[in-house]
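Fold sample X.
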Amino acid sequence: MRRFFEEYHRIIGILLLSFVIILLFSTPSMIFAKSFTTIGTELSHASSDETLVRSKIDFGSNEHMKAFPKEIGNWWGTDYETVGLAERLGADVLLMRAYSNPDFYQPVFFLIMQSNNRSSFHPPIVCYPALGYTIVEEGKEEIPIQDVSWVEEPLYTKPLTKTGISTNRTISAKKLVVVKESPDGTVTERRVVLYYYVKEKPVSNKITMVRISALAPLDGSYDEILNICEEFMVETVPCMFEPRRKDPSVFSLLLASNPALGTVTILLLFLVPLAIIFYPQIRDMQRRKYVSRGGQRSKIKRRYNK
């Protein structure tokens, strides 16, 4: 073991010094964070359009869902009765509201649902056909966000990180256009649907979906309704995700809490790896001192014997 240490002391010391530097200039949230949250469009796998965020609410808490703002900008929400609906949708937590705005003639329907079991979760592409709708269009929308302070800056390169998380200034949402028809084939209802998933990583079986939908004209363009849904989605973002906080580094915290003790702690953290790196030089210095002291004692003895 000693031979191994003497042979690789420099590598061990450099690695330990690197660890100390990373530790001191990291933040507590970077060290102790067990998971992170992303917004994305895919349920079963990660995608390049995922965005790293900080959750402001607990999507798995019924209390947090009940406390979700009914007033958002000029929008005002009315709750739907969800008794029995959560079970049919495979949801453990469910919020369902209709939000109205005096500037728009059409309300939007807002839904947040979370399930602890992915296999029982009903995504819109499964749920709407089960309710008698036909999906006539499927795509993806990039919804621009004015204030992106709630987006986390990844530790890797931009615009795409090694983990596949982008630093987009948009939210990627899936879009569906669904219709319901009468027995003779006449379209009786058409809806525009936008939704995305909120996922906890790296390991979690929980899945949360945020969905916004609205009724569209039975034929012709649905662009106006799509714009209304996108505008409302932008309004909901600050209610669910909080601005990025700049945490102080461990180095700053040590000096701020107790300058004297913090300085000593930092010095000791650096001295240990430096002592390992320069172990041979320190050992040789100790040997020379020992030999020098031994020689001086011999001289004193000879003088005393004379």
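Fold sample Y, listed below.
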Amino acid sequence: MLKRIFLIFLCIFSLLPTISASAYEVTNFEITAKAGVLISLDTDEYIYSNNIDQKIYPAAITNIMTALVILESDKYSPDGRITMTEKALTDILGTGVAVTNTKAGEEFSHTDLLHFIMMCSCGDAGYLAADYFYGSHEAFVEKMNAKAKDLGLENTNFTNPIGLHDENHYTTVRDIATLSKYALQNKTFKEICAKHRYNMEATNMRDKRILSTTNFLLDTTTNYYYQYASGIKTGYTDEAGRCIVATASYNGYNYLCILMNSPNNPLKRSELKECADLFRWAFNNFKFKEIATSTEPVCEIPLKLSMDTDFVPLYFEKPFISVLPKDADDSTIVINTKLKVDSVKAPVRKGQVLGEAEVIFAEKVIGRVNLVVGEDVKGNALLKGVDFVKGIFTSVYMKVIYVVLGIAVLIFVGFCIKMNLSRLKKRKVKYVPYDKKIK
């Protein structure tokens, strides 16, 4: 009985308002990037966030989409061959972007092309890809924007395939995160962006060469090397500032870090240092915590038309695991239930969704999970029959009939009264006093 009262109390508690909050504040170091985020790739929770919906310029971070569009092209083949053109070399003249140092007529593989784009941000490789895979820069950009729309990147627009600055070439940290998580599902993309060196085979015009990544978090020869980093891309223009999108994994924990518009200081690459600092901060201060299982009831909902029980317990659809500070106080974790209806009629099926639970930690919603029925509950035939009959007599159609019948009765009664009054008039006899009677 006490357990039932407690569960009902939890359901009633769902009527109380909740308070939302931003991600956690970093400790012991400063983030100078104007926009950024640190996301758990295991739970999709935002551990750190700042200006994630603010309009920013992506610079060569654009190449994440460029590579993705190439990989999803029908013409792409790892061993397919592509030839550098005079047009691609001419298109990047005066832009100041990195180049492949290849010559017109030089052939290399599609895989080589992707390494040029992702590891080195080579602009001529990006323009070459646009013409080769979709016929023109414009058609390629159109495909990029179509893909952005498909992924729900509502605040992103591309005007070129290599990230040259343009007022209409913009995105947000939130959109970059969505794009990056999608791109990481592609095995080839994930492998390329994790490399710090690539041994490129000889071409028809040049011997073998080695390509090096611009992401110094991956490069063991730099002061910025971070042993747990595994990708993804860097970028820079004067307007965009220093940018990085990186991933790191350690001891079963996986994070995505994005820092955009960091200060440009060649002697101190703050975006690289702060990205590594964020990874260390997360690995050292956060841990997985199972907040709720799928085997313990969260609340109950009244059940009708069953002789077995008057309430049916609801469970989490799946166990809820969150990344929380290691010193998190369990007493600040609240499960806030929201039921779809006040009651439900039997039969109900195991797994049937009847509500949702918000998980709140330190006044911040950290996740939402469906509430489902834990086991099948049969309905009683007699109760169902009574309910069916009751439903007929209380249905909208019957209510309309009741109204029509009521109006008809009123009309009939009115007609009867009118007819009786008419008859009384006809039967009325004029009274003549006795003394005035005609003799």
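Sample Y note: The chain is about 30% helix and 25% strand.
Also: The chain has two domains: 1-26+293-439, 35-285.
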